[in-house]
Specification:
This is Trk system potassium uptake protein TrkA. It contains 15 helices and 22 strands. It is an alpha/beta fold. A hairpin with a 4-residue loop joins strand 7 and strand 8. The two termini are 17 Å apart.
C-alpha cells in the first residue's frame, strides 16, 4: 500500500516506522525539516517538507495514488482540513486524529463522513476507556474485549503462588479439564514465546490468555490473582484522559483528582460534580500521603510527564495500593515501568497504531490491538467463505508457528480454539501474532 502520514511528531513517527516494517510505501509530510531529517535516518520512508494543508505538498507526496492518508499532526483543525483535501485529491481512504469528544457523537460523525473523512479517532478517549476496563478487571495488566465481550484477551503476571508455576502447558490443561481459556503467549525476559505443550510457566512470566466469559474466573484462580473492587480511586493529572476516567467513575467510586495547574483545577471542579479536585503537585510525596494515598484501592497517573507517572506509581505500590496504572509516552520506558512494579502501562502511540493498523490489512479485520508488554498484535478476523482456514481442523492447515488461534465466535457461542477445531465461514477468529507472522496470516482468512 502507498500510505501518506501527515505529521512527524511522536505518533506520526511511530506509525511511519511501524508501517515501513510491514513493507508499505510510506511518505511523511511535515513543515519542520529537522523532524523529517531525524525520521529519514531512522526509517525507510520518503519525506516531504511542507504543510499537510498545502495542495502542492500533498501532490508532491503522491496523494492521487495514496491508498491511505493518515493525519496525525498536533493540531485537530489541520488534521481535519488535510483529510478532506486528501480525499478530494484522490486518496482512497482518509483518517484524522481529533481532540474533541463532541465530534464522535453519532449525529456529528455523519457530518465528517459526508465531508469524505472515513474515520476519526481520539486517542485520549480510547485510553480512558482502556483504563476504565482495567479498573473493572484489576487482576490483569491488560484487558481487551473482542466480539462485544464474547472473547477477551487478558494479560497477567504470574505470582509465586500461582498453581501453574513449573508446570507445562500440557500438564496445566490436563489438570484443569475442559478449559474456557487458552494461553496464547508468554513474555519472559524480553522474549515473547508462543507456548507449545512442553513449555513451562515460570514465576514472573507475563501470560497472554484468550478467554470466554465462563473462563475468566477460573483463569484468575490458576494465575494466583484476584480481582479487587475499586471503591477509592486517586487520579494524578487532569488531562483529557484523567478527566474522562473521573467522569465515568465518579458515581461508582470515591474519586480524588490532583492537578498541578490552578486554572485547570478550577475548570475540572466545575465539571466533575462528584470528584474531589485538589490543586497540588503530584511529585510531592507528602501531599499524596496527606490526601490518603494509603487508603486507595487504585492509583492512575496520567500527567504529561512519564517519569512523574512512573515514580508516583512506585510510591503508590510501596504504600500498599493494589492497582497502579501509568500513562507512559516514551516507549523505551515501558519495560522499566513494568520492572519496577507498575501494574499497567497506557501508551497513546500504541493505541493509535491499534486503531490504524487494521486499515492497512487486505483481509476483513474487525479489530486489532498492538500490545504494550511485547512486540505482538492480537487481531480479530471475519472468515470469508472458501478461505484456506475453513479447509479442515486447525492442526491440519499449516498455520504459521509464530501465530496462534486463540478463540472463535460463532453466532452467540464463544469457543476456545483447539487443534481439532474447524473454522467456518463468517466466524470471528481471534489470532495472536508476532510481527514475523503479520504478513502471512491474512491469506488464511481471504
Amino acid at each position: 500500500m502507498r500510505i501518506i502520514v501527515a505529521g512527524a511528531g511522536e505518533v506520526g513517527v511511530h506509525l511511519a516506522k511501524m508501517l515501513s516494517n510491514e513493507y508499505h510505501d510510506i511518505v511523511v509530510i511535515d513543515s519542520e525539516e529537522e523532524l523529517l531529517r531525524s525520521l529519514d535516518s531512522a526509517a525507510d520512508v520518503t519525506t516531504v517538507n511542507g504543510s499537510a494543508t498545502n495542495i502542492s505538498a500533498l501532490n508532491e507526496a503522491g496523494i492521487k495514488k495514496a491508498d491511505l492518508f493518515i493525519a496525525v499532526t498536533h493540531f485537530e483543525e489541520t488534521n481535519i482540513i488535510a483529510a478532506i483535501l486528501g480525499k478530494r485529491l484522490g486518496a482512497k481512504k482518509v483518517i484524522a486524529r481529533i481532540d474533541n469528544y463532541e465530534y464522535l457523537e453519532p449525529n456529528n460523525k455523519e457530518i465528517f463522513l459526508n465531508l469524505g473523512i472515513d474515520y476519526l479517532f481520539y486517542p485520549e478517549k480510547i485510553a480512558a476507556r482502556e483504563i476504565i476496563g482495567l479498573l473493572g478487571q484489576t487482576s490483569s495488566t491488560e484487558y481487551v474485549d473482542f466480539s462485544n465481550g464474547k472473547l477477551s484477551l487478558i494479560v497477567f503476571k504470574l505470582e509465586e503462588n500461582a498453581p501453574v508455576i513449573d508446570k507445562t502447558l500440557l500438564q496445566a490443561t490436563r489438570e484443569n479439564g475442559k478449559l474456557e481459556y487458552r494461553a496464547v503467549a508468554i513474555s519472559r525476559e524480553g522474549e515473547t514465546i508462543i507456548p507449545r505443550g512442553s513449555d513451562q510457566f515460570k514465576a514472573g512470566d507475563m501470560v497472554y490468555v484468550i478467554s470466554n466469559q465462563a473462563g475468566i474466573k477460573d483463569m484468575q484462580t490458576y494465575s494466583g490473582k484476584t480481582n479487587i473492587d475499586v471503591h477509592n480511586l486517586m487520579i494524578l493529572g487532569g488531562s483529557r484522559i484523567g478527566k474522562r476516567v473521573a467522569m465515568e467513575l465518579e458515581k461508582e467510586a470515591n474519586v480524588k483528582l490532583i492537578e498541578f495547574d490552578k486554572e485547570k483545577s478550577i475548570q475540572l471542579a466545575q465539571v466533575l460534580q462528584n470528584t474531589l479536585v485538589i490543586h497540588g503537585d503530584g511529585r510531592n510525596t507528602d501531599l499524596l500521603l496527606e490526601e490518603g494515598l494509603r487508603n486507595m484501592d487504585a492509583f492512575v497517573a496520567v500527567t504529561g510527564n512519564s517519569e512523574t507517572n512512573i515514580l508516583s506509581c512506585m510510591l503508590a505500590k510501596r504504600m500498599g495500593v493494589k492497582k497502579t496504572i501509568a500513562e507512559i509516552e516514551n516507549l523505551d520506558y515501558i519495560k522499566l515501568a513494568e520492572s519496577v512494579g507498575v501494574d499497567t502501562v497506557i501508551n497513546k502511540k500504541l493505541i493509535t497504531a491499534s486503531r490504524i493498523f487494521r486499515f492497512t490489512m487486505s483481509t476483513d479485520v474487525q479489530a486489532i490491538k498492538c500490545l504494550t508488554g511485547c512486540e505482538a498484535e492480537v487481531i480479530e478476523f471475519i472468515v470469508k467463505p472458501g478461505s484456506p482456514i475453513t479447509k479442515g481442523p486447525i492442526k491440519h492447515i499449516n498455520f504459521p508457528k509464530d501465530a496462534i488461534i486463540g478463540g472463535v465466535v460463532r453466532g452467540d457461542m464463544a469457543l476456545i480454539a483447539k487443534g481439532v477445531t474447524e473454522i467456518k465461514a463468517y466466524d470471528r477468529v481471534v489470532v495472536f501474532a508476532l510481527p514475523s507472522a503479520i504478513n502471512r496470516i491474512g491469506k488464511y482468512f481471504n
